[in-house]
Amino acid sequence: MSHTHAAAGDLVEVGGLPWRARIGPYLPSLVVLVAAVVYGSVSSPYFLNFSALLVNTGRYVEIGLLALALTVVIINGDIDLSVASNLAVSAATMGLLVESGVGIEVAAFAALAVGLGLGAINALFIVGLGLPSLVVTLATLALYRGLAQILLGDRAVTGYPEAFIGVDQISLLGDWARVPLPLVLFLVVALLFSVLLTRTNFGLACYLTGSNQQAARFSGIKTDHTRAVAFMLCGLMAGAAAIMLTSRLGSTLSNVGLGLELLAITVVVLGGTDIFGGRGTIIGTVIALFAVMAVRESLVISNVNGQVQDAVVGVILILAIIVPLTVAHLRERSSQRRLR
Amino acid sequence: MAVVECRQVSKWYGTAKVLDDVDFTANEAEIHVILGENGAGKSTLVKVIAGLVSPDRGQVLLRGAALKAGSVAAAQAQGVALIHQEPRLFPDLSVMENIWIDQGSGWWSRRRFRLSRMAGRTRELLGRLGSSVSPDARVAFLSVADQQMIDIAAALRKDLKVLIVDEPTASLTPAEVGNLFRVMRELRDQGVAVIFIGHRLEEILEISDRITVLRDGRLVRTLSRDEANEDELIRLMIGRDIEAVAHAPTAAVGEVLLSVRDLSAAGHFSDVSLDVRRGEIVGIGGLVGSGRSEVLEAIFGVRPRSTGVVSVGGRSIGSLAQAVASGMGLVPEDRGRYGLVLLSSVLNNVSAPNLDLTSRLGIRRPRREQRNAQDIVARLRIRVSSLAQLAGQLSGGNQQRVSLGKWLVRDLDILLVDEPTRGVDIGSKREIHGLLRQFADSGKAVLLVSSDMRELLEVPDRILVMREGRITGGLSIDEADEESVMRLAAGIAA
User: Which domains does chain A have, with CATH numbers?
Assistant: First the structure.
């Protein structure tokens, strides 16, 4: 490439970011990942059991699916707090259909459809009526959760067919490297999302919309359409996560997935996506998911209780945001001093 | 006596050297104009003086004492005030609150902050500037000119020694410019060193005592007003001669391409009808706020219309998507807010309106996008380090070229341009005029909104003038002059 440019003379280089700028957004999550793995393996000889680690990933895939779609929504400059509640309604719908004798395939499809539909309702209020996504999805966070409670009451739906239960127990590649099926599915979906953001018109539209919605619109980008599609994708992923979670748990309660939205948003932000939109990557989200997973698992293995785990994740998120900013600030000051 | 003395000041941004060994002096009781193309380093130089930017080499002396580099507080203590092009005020606070905003925060100073007395002092300060805004008015509702006066009033509160005014006149009406110049002269006569960054040569020759020309970060020459004339200044600024666009009335004006009938947008303008033919540049003049920009936005479909029809080649255009599909492009006035996504790359900005051309089934084709962008960068002579450079890192003139160039990728028929050369250096200005002429001469249509009287009289083939949301008249280029345009714009009978 560079040769042809030189020959053409007046063509400007395509160029790219220097490696430091490329790797910068991933640095916090990578550091957290490495630190957690080191801590885990120091505190327990069983931590670095590779196949056990892999099996445990199954439990984080639902968070991962939500985080992938949330990455797109947040890049757009929006937020969706209702994903976990949406997941509950999708799961409840699936449970009720299975109870009434509908086949599991149809019920699972219905979960996807309900997820998509609830995402579309969010989009209608946010894009159609021009309301802020934070407020709308805060409302639907409560509304959808309430809907799940109305659908299920205090009951637990259990009548799922044997074949459907335990997707996380299925593994590929046999016994020597037990790669759970959910992990594979997650990585495939992550790849699709990555292609969506980096290789398609929709992806560019997301970045431009999140960076400056007015300028994007003035450039002929369909910003409303872009934002609405992102919310619907989010709903669709909530439906998919509902299927995975139900298969893993084998039963459905109305409080299923309670609080998952916060973990998912944590993963997205730790992964370097700008909470104000315009910047972010799927790779960052994937790395951050593994980082959060490593933190949790290493705390579990050293017998730290659940509440403390939550607190640790919170502290890590804050540090992950503050430390890089401070480092950049110090570096700038020291470089100024050197030049003087 | 020299109040400001810059000694061998150099500044890099990354690898780009924006100031290169600049030795600059401003004396007390003079108006010193800094002139140069966009990207020449004018704004950086005054920011160094105001302590907003610390130089990588060299130092600034204020009244003989070295300025602590990069300290705004130190510069302010020495009586330096910088008035930005877009005043940086708090829109939701009152005029008075903005003027006294930095009045100490300690308990003692707050005790002394007596509202009634402050209102009186505020009025007195504004009175000195010939401004009649009420101290209680909310800044959000004031014009840019009034806001600049508030900025200056805040500076006058202290013992002002150096007043730096950065490109203030782009958004001002002639009367407002006149008032600003009067204030500047008064301050000069009181001994203040006034440093002024400007673009309009007529203005500069009128106001300046001395002129310093910068080019590519270097100080080319400092000359007194008597030595200066327009051609000489242009030559110093760009280092070569550029011909003004000779106005050749187009021979072949074709059929009507863009037709607007009874277009209205509630609260902004009403009953606007106009035609633009192939090969024609139609200018729209008028005062700021007369609804010109809003008309362009409504034609393009980014602003809701209440009534009216827009059609291109006979087909009615209802939405933004249809407007783009019919070959229309809009270069908005505020390129930072609407024209470009500043935090995105030049490549992405150029690609944004052209994704339909470069992609297949929604999948982007990077090679095509790169080729288009390289082509535009070469054609419009845009100065970028690479296509991955962020649009926000470019100088104003280059940003404007990207904002215009992204539409030229398409086989466009109609270009709507709003103040295409505001805040743009004179070299870029003439090149942009040349591009518009060339575009029209190839059988296409241009609708140009401009507040720059010379631009309005030189570039278009005919002129429409708007006042208070209505078109008050049309002028052929032969009958149009400054006076006839102003009469229509201000509503004075001939």
Answer: 2-339 (1.10.3470)
